[in-house]
């Protein structure tokens, strides 16, 4: 390939990567949490924090408020006198299906790798002084546009 074509491809890769980096980071983090079902009461071992439930709703349903992702005790259809089911411990889950746990662990490591790669990519892109303004603009647009679409 010609040198000019390679420069253009690197520039396109840079711009596309910076624009999508905020959502890649969000989806990698929420995907890692969802691997062990931490957005659910059974996976978390109690009522999960709202930020985990929010991230799962955005990741799975592309919306902010979803009853199916809320903890069971936050749903209106659950009766107050119903006892909460205690989730099995991590050790029991691993003993039940070690292959599934190994795949879950691999998935979390993949998410961590994607997070690190995205953060490093943004850092490298921001170190190019000639294109720093454009990079900040694309990064801001990539973070803002999904939020606007969520709230519209």
Element layout with pairings:
Elements lengths: L2 H33 L5 H4 L5 H12 L28 H7 L1 H29 L5 H20 L1
Helix pairs in contact: 1-3, 1-5, 1-6, 4-5
Give a short overview.
By secondary structure, the chain is mostly helical.
Tell me the major beta sheet: none
Class from helix and strand fractions: mainly alpha
Distance between the termini: 44 Å
> If you compute it from the alpha carbons, what radius of gyration comes out, rounded to the nearest whole angstrom?
20 Å
Shape: elongated
Catalogue the unreliable spans: 75-79
Determine the strand fraction and express it as a percent band: under 5%
Order of helices and strands: HHHHHH
The beta-strand count equals 0
What is the count of helical runs?
A: 6
Task: Please give a structural write-up.
- The chain is mainly α.
- It has one domain (3-71, 87-151).
- The protein is built from six helices and no strands.
- α1 (3-35) crosses α3 (50-61) and α4 (90-96) crosses α5.
- The radius of gyration is 20 Å and the shape is elongated.
- It starts with a helix and ends with a helix.
């Amino acid at each position: 390939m010609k040198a000019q074509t390679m420069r253009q491809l690197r520039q396109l890769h840079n711009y596309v990567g910076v624009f999508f980096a905020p959502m890649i980071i969000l989806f990698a983090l929420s995907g890692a949490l969802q691997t062990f079902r931490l957005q659910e009461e059974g996976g978390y071992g109690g009522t999960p924090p709202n930020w985990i439930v929010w991230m799962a709703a955005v990741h799975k349903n592309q919306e902010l408020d979803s009853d199916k992702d809320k903890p069971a005790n936050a749903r209106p259809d659950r009766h107050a006198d119903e006892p909460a089911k205690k989730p099995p411990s991590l050790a029991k889950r691993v003993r039940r299906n070690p292959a599934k746990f190994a795949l879950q662990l691999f998935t979390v490591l993949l998410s961590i790798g994607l997070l690190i790669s995205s953060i490093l990519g943004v850092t490298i892109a921001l170190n190019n002084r000639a294109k720093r303004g454009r990079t900040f603009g694309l990064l801001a647009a990539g973070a803002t546009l999904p939020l606007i679409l969520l709230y519209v």
